[in-house]
Design brief:
32% helix, 3 domains, globular, 15 helices, single chain, 6-stranded antiparallel sheet, 5-stranded antiparallel sheet, 21% strand, alpha+beta, 490 residues
C-alpha cells in the first residue's frame, strides 16, 4: 500500500516536491528492485525473452536451466508477479509434469505478491490468469480459489461501460482478453460477459485488414505463441469464436486459437461506424476508409500510465492499410528522450499549439503532471461527422482546441479551431506510416512542411524513419484552419 500511495501522490504534488528519481527510489525500496529510469537498459526486452514463449517440449533442458538460474522473485527481471505469471504459462505449455517444481514455485510467488492497486490493471489480470493455469496442475493448492473467485470482477474492471479498456491502450485490452480466454478454457466461470463486450469493442476498431490503431502504449506482449502481426485480430477472433459470436472478416484460425480449442466454423461480422462514449473513441467508415478519432481521457486513473497526449488525434486506414496514426511505442525506460517523443503530442495526428504537449509529461515514464480533458460536442454517425474539443492548452497557452472531422467521398475533412486570444504557432501534424502517402490540401494561410521522425514498428525493435507532414502557421486567435486528406492514389 505504501508504494501505491506514493505513486498516486506523485500525480498531485508539484514537480519540485517529488521528481521522477524520487519515485524510482521508492519503487526500488518497496517493490524489491526496478529499472534504472535514466540508465541505458530497458528490462522489457529481458522480460519478454524470459517469458520463454519460443520454447517447446524439445527445449525442456533449456527451460529447467533457465528456471534454476532465474527463480521467481530474484533479481530485477522476476520481481514483477505479472511477468512470473507469463513465464508460468510457458512452463505449463512446455511440459507441466517435468517442470512441476518450478511451476509450483512460480504460482506460489504470484499468489503471494499481487500488484499494488495503483497499477493493477492488466498486471492483476495476468496474475489471476497464471493462477488459473497452475490450478489445472495443482488443484489441491490452498488459497488460490479465493483469489480466482475475484477474476470476474477484476476482468470487468478493465472495461469501461462501452466495452473498451480503461487504460486507453487497446493493445493492452487485447492482452487482457487473451488472459481471460485462457482462464475460461481452464474452467474459470463468470468471464463471458466481459470477454464478449471487450472483444466486440476491439473488433469495431479493426480496419479492413485487421489492424488495430495504435492508441496509447503497446509493449508488444502476448500470452500464448501466435502471430504478432495483427495480434488484436487474432485474440478478438479467438474470443468471439469461443463464445459463438461472429468474428472479424480477416480472422483465421492460428496457433493461438488451436491451443485454446477455438471453433473454426464461425460466421463473419460486418463493421459499421460506431462511437464509444466512455472511452472517447469514434470509428467512422466509408468507401474503404476507416477513421478513428480520439476524444477521450488521457488514460486510466489515477496514473494514466499507458495513455498518450493524443487528444483529438486521428488514425486513418485506406483499404485495410494503415496510412496515418501515431509513432508507436519504442521503449518505456532507458531512453527518456525517445519515450517523451513517442507519447507526446507531436507524435500524433492532432494539433500542436506553440510547440507544447497538450498534457505535460512527468520525468517518470508512466506519470503525468497535467492531463488534457477532451469532450465530444456533436456527433452524426449517418453523416460521419463529429466535433470535439479539449482544454489541454487553456491554462498554459490561453486557448482551447476544437476539431470537426468529416469523412466522405474518399476524403477526410478537418476543421481545427483555436479559441482564445493572442498570437500562436499552430501545427497540424500528420505522421505517415513508413512507406505510406496521402494527398494533403492545406489552408491557404498554412505552409506544408515535411520532416522525418523515428517510428517504432514494435516495442524494443530499432525505430525506422518515417515522413511526417506538418501544416503550420502563426495566427491571431480565434481562427479556424481547414485540412483535407485523401488517398494518394485511387
Amino acid at each position: 500500500m505504501r508504494a501505491s500511495w506514493w505513486l498516486a501522490r506523485a500525480r498531485r504534488v508539484p514537480a519540485r516536491e517529488l521528481p521522477g528519481r524520487a519515485i524510482e527510489a521508492l519503487w526500488r525500496r518497496w517493490v524489491g528492485g526496478g529499472p534504472d529510469l535514466a540508465g541505458p537498459d530497458d528490462p522489457r526486452a529481458a522480460w519478454e525473452a524470459g517469458r520463454l514463449l519460443e520454447l517447446g517440449p524439445d527445449d525442456l533442458d533449456r527451460a529447467l536451466a533457465f528456471c534454476r538460474d532465474h527463480p521467481p522473485g530474484r533479481g530485477l527481471h522476476w520481481a514483477c508477479a505479472a511477468e512470473v505469471a507469463h513465464r508460468l504459462v510457458s512452463l505449463e505449455r512446455i511440459d507441466a509434469r517435468s517442470l512441476s517444481r518450478p511451476l509450483l514455485d512460480h504460482a506460489r510467488f504470484v499468489a503471494a505478491h499481487p500488484t499494488p492497486p495503483s497499477s493493477a490493471y492488466n498486471h492483476r489480470v495476468a496474475e489471476l490468469g497464471g493462477l488459473a493455469v497452475a490450478q489445472t496442475t495443482f488443484p489441491d493448492e490452498r488459497g488460490w480459489d479465493r483469489q480466482l473467485a475475484t477474476f470476474p470482477q477484476v476482468l470487468a474492471r478493465q472495461l469501461r461501460p462501452d466495452g473498451l479498456g480503461v487504460e486507453q491502450a487497446p493493445a493492452y485490452l487485447a492482452q487482457v482478453l487473451e488472459w481471460g480466454l485462457l482462464a475460461r478454457s481452464r474452467g474459470v466461470a463468470g468471464l463471458d460477459d466481459s470477454l464478449r463486450r471487450g472483444a466486440d469493442a476491439l473488433a469495431s476498431l479493426l480496419d479492413e485488414g485487421g489492424h488495430l490503431p495504435d492508441v496509447g502504449d503497446d509493449d508488444g506482449g502476448c500470452v500464448l505463441p501466435g502471430p504478432r502481426d495483427r495480434y488484436a485480430c487474432s485474440v478478438v477472433g479467438a474470443v468471439l469464436a469461443s463464445l459463438g459470436e461472429p468474428v472479424p472478416t480477416t480472422w483465421s484460425p492460428d496457433e493461438r486459437s488451436a491451443a485454446l480449442g477455438v471453433p473454426t466454423a464461425v460466421a463473419r461480422r460486418t463493421e459499421r461506424s460506431r462511437t464509444f462514449a466512455d472511452a472517447g473513441l469514434t470509428v467512422l467508415r466509408h468507401q474503404g476508409l476507416t477513421l478513428v478519432v480520439d476524444h477521450g481521457p488521457l488514460g486510466g486513473p489515477p496514473l494514466s500510465a499507458h495513455g498518450h497526449a493524443d487528444a483529438l488525434a486521428i488514425w486513418l486506414s485506406v483499404d485495410g492499410r494503415p496510412v496515418l496514426g501515431g509513432r508507436g511505442t519504442g521503449r518505456y525506460v532507458g531512453d527518456p528522450v525517445a519515450r517523451r517523443f513517442h507519447r507526446g503530442t507531436s507524435a500524433h495526428a492532432t494539433v500542436v499549439v506553440d510547440g507544447a504537449d497538450q498534457s505535460v509529461q512527468h520525468d517518470h515514464p508512466f506519470l503525468w503532471r497535467t492531463s488534457a480533458r477532451a469532450k465530444l460536442e456533436d456527433l452524426d454517425l449517418a453523416r460521419r461527422t463529429l466535433t470535439a474539443s479539449h482544454d489541454g492548452y487553456r491554462e498554459r497557452r490561453g486557448v482551447e482546441h476544437r476539431r470537426t472531422v468529416r469523412l466522405a467521398d474518399r476524403r477526410v475533412e478537418l476543421w481545427d479551431t483555436i479559441e482564445g486570444r493572442g498570437r500562436h504557432h499552430v501545427a497540424v501534424v500528420l505522421p505517415l506510416r513508413p512507406g505510406a502517402d496521402l494527398r494533403v490540401e492545406v489552408d491557404p494561410r498554412c505552409v506544408l512542411r515535411e520532416r522525418t521522425d523515428p517510428h517504432a514498428p514494435r516495442y524494443g525493435q530499432p525505430t525506422v524513419e518515417a515522413r511526417t507532414l506538418v501544416a503550420e502557421a502563426v495566427l491571431d486567435a480565434p481562427f479556424t484552419i481547414r485540412t483535407v486528406l485523401s488517398p494518394a492514389s485511387g
